[in-house]
Amino acid sequence: MPVPVPQQRSVPAAETSHGDLTLLVIEDDPAGTTITVPELSAAAGTRVRIRTARNLTEAARLLTDDVDCILLDLALPLTGGGSGPGTPTVDAGTSGAGTGTADSGSLPEPVSARAGELAALTHVLGIAPQHAVLALTAQDDTELAAEAVRVGAQDYLFRGELDARVLSRAIRYAVERKRADTAQHQLTESRLRAQENARLERGLLPTPLLDGSGLSFAARYRPGRSRALLGGDFYDVVRTPDGTVHAMIGDVCGHGPDEAALGVELRIAWRALTLAGLCGDELLSTLQQVLEHERQSEEIFATLCTVDIAPDGRRAGLCLAGHPAPLLARHGLPARLLPYQDGGPALGLLPRARWPRRQVELGGAWSLMMYTDGLIEGRVGTGGSERLGQDGMVAMVNSRLEQGLAGEELLEAAVAEVRELNGGELTDDVAVLLLGRDPERIRRWGGSAPRSHPASSVAGRPLGVQRPPL
């Protein structure tokens, strides 16, 4: 036979065992005819401790973190049982559990067609968004019971079936369903955030502006952070109205999202300053000011390499700010590093630094490879005790050139070989871009290359890579 719900009592720590559940029963008893709930013991499955509340105010006070499930009588008066001043009044026209104190982790509830009859339920869902809720209703009101589940309750029970076995099973089911619903909601939010972040990061990748230059372009980009699209490395290429092609590649120290954001800011600032006509030392000095204002710590610095290629494509100006020198390969000759002795310090290290611009002869047909140190700092040799270094990179690129590789194929083979020598994925960000000039191809296209399509390659997955004209 069912027995009256026991009054709340404190449970000594010694009586609490793993798997115990706490049930909060919310029911009103104005006539002294209490709802009877069967005694639940370990024999029915999991031991359930019971607390009781006769109105919503008392329920809010008893709703602590250790409560696992709530059993709510849908017949509870809207005013909380008339328990005196301070009792919350629930608007009978309110629907959904999003009202009240529901936090951002609660699940959005649909609008109910019987919102007035479910006002107490919507209030409880609002103040207890993380708790499982069982709705208790009359035996013949199946429609209201189903509506309660649609609004947000995990299950419903009829007053006439409150035996120990049914109630114990319903509590465990409601608790597990709430956990599953919460986990699914968090997973969905996580996926949406990941998709939004991916779209944002793809939008922040550079779109090279090279139309009319006659130069070919290829790039590879691999962030060191797992599941990231952007790292601290950055690059960009633009052609100014006078026909000069400006290329830049840089590296912010560090590998986190702050460094990635700073790299994007520096890239955008470089493009704006370049299109405004700045070049060489003047441009780098201004970029250093941007870095100093935007960095999170005074210890943050960035290396940078800039190249401005003359409209005729035969010579270029080179500026190095603590960055590895580019690799130049002329037609029929082995690749070699451009001069780097006159480079300046990395941005952010010295407040009044200067970065001299060196003139470089490119020739008629050439390929210029710019890269970050992630490409040359991979481990090589037995046990990975040595790094590839610039000399190793030059030898590797020359061996690929002898095989007849160029453009996209050359970059793909170079990055793949560096990974293989390292024995797996590189921990540092890697950015590599390749500019090339082929007079024969330019003549074939009437003095300029066909319109190219913007893109990049992230973590080895092409996102519509801008391919050199064939």
Number of helices: 9
Share of helix among residues? 25-40%
Strand content: 15-25%
Query: How do the SSEs run, as a string of H and E?
Result: EEHEHEHEHEEEHHEEEEEEEEHHEHEE
Largest sheet: 5 strands, parallel
Number of strand segments:
19
* Rg, Cα atoms, Å: 34 Å
Find the structural class using helix and strand composition: alpha+beta
Name the average pLDDT: 78
For the biggest β-sheet, the strand order reads 2-1-3-4-5
How widely separated are the two ends? 87 Å
The coarse overall form would be elongated
Uncertain parts: 1-18, 30-34, 80-112, 448-470
Describe the structure.
A hairpin with a 5-residue loop joins strand 11 (327-330) and strand 12 (336-337). It contains 9 helices and 19 strands. The protein starts with 20 loop residues before the first strand and ends in an 8-residue tail after the last strand. It has helices spanning 56-62, 119-127, 142-151, 164-204, 257-275, 280-294, 389-402, 407-422, 439-444; strands at 21-26, 48-53, 69-73, 132-137, 155-158, 216-222, 233-239, 245-252, 302-309, 315-321, 327-330, 336-337, 358-361, 366-371, 379-380, 386-387, 430-437, 457-458, 461-462. The longest helix is centred in the middle third of the chain and has 41 residues, at 164-204. The strands form 5 sheets. It has a 5-stranded parallel β-sheet with strand order 2-1-3-4-5. The relative contact order is 0.09.
